Amino acid sequence: MEMENRTVVSEFILLGIPNTKGHETILFIGFLAFYLCTLLGNLLILSAILADSRLHTPMYFFLSNLSVLDLVLASISTPKLLVDLWAKSRTISLGGCMSQVFFFHFLGSTECLIYTVMAFDRYMAICHPLRYLIIMNWRVCTILTASTWITSSFHATILTSLTFTLPYCGPNVVDYFFCDIFPVVKLACADTYVIKTVTFTNTGVMPMTCFFLILVSYVRIVYSILKMNSGEGRRKAASTCSSHLTVVTLFFGPCALVYMQPRQSKVLVTFVQLFGYVATPVLNPIIYTLRNKEVKGALRKLRGSQTTAR
Asked: What's the per-residue H, E or C state across 253-277?
């Protein structure tokens, strides 16, 4: 009888970004600009890789997956955030909230694993160059990539299922700018120990394991680079690895700040999440383009073919 008398929540209200009242228009323009740059930058990277046969290698295959992830990850909450800022309509349906939780953890986990696979690819290319093309063939690359997507789908399904099998009977105000597990489960009218424990374990163990594997790979890579006799080979290997290390830092830094220390200031956590959500997908294509002659050449070739077609 007690459960029957409870009101089941069918929608949530997102409070948005804290301490930004009166600045909605400026934020809308800023986030829209970042979002459009994300779409343009990652679509250009994808187009260049697809159009230039010289980039049909394992490294750029993984990079194209990263571009797809950045495109979709930026589209999870940014459009909704833009609507909230412009129309001041902060309501999100239960299904929409579930989708945000699922896709955020699905794509975030996939990106974490893709970075690890990319580190392994660089390790094989630099430390075992003679066997690289034999080991990192298209079958292996496809299996590695598919495994990251499938593993992450299970990870996200478990977290989302545990989150939304909890009863929500009011209030329905999410003190955040999008639906994530911790802000949502605070509203559950039941014990949340299990979901909090599973979330801390999953979002802690997976990134830490991936980071450890990346670190081990780069210790071996640095050792191999130092042993190289060719200065040109050293520069090329260091350039490729520095781009990957930069985007890894941009990913794991915010992740550690948010999920390893959940009692931090809400303003700080929000800023860190916004950086990871909005700025990182823009920076990734810039980092790989500015330091990569092959990608820049492919983009020039793509631009030239478009000019000729006109």
From this structure: HHHHHHHCCCCCCHHHHHHHHHHHH
The residue length of the chain stands at 310
Angle formed by the axes of helices 58-87 and 138-164, to 10°?
A: 30
Distance, CA of 211 to CA of 74 (rounded, Å): 23
Eight-class DSSP state of 176:
S
pLDDT digits (tens, 9 = 90+) for 234-290: 777 777 778 788 888 888 777 666 665 555 566 667 777 777 777 788 888 888 776
Q: What is the pTM (predicted TM-score) of this model? A: 0.86
Q: Distance of CA 141 to CAs 60, 136, 198, 240, 246, Å?
A: 11, 6, 30, 19, 23
Residue owning tokens 């930069």? 246
CA-to-CA separations, 178 to 172, 235, 237, 254, in angstroms, rounded: 13, 42, 39, 16
CB atoms under 10 Å from CB of 73, counted, come to 22
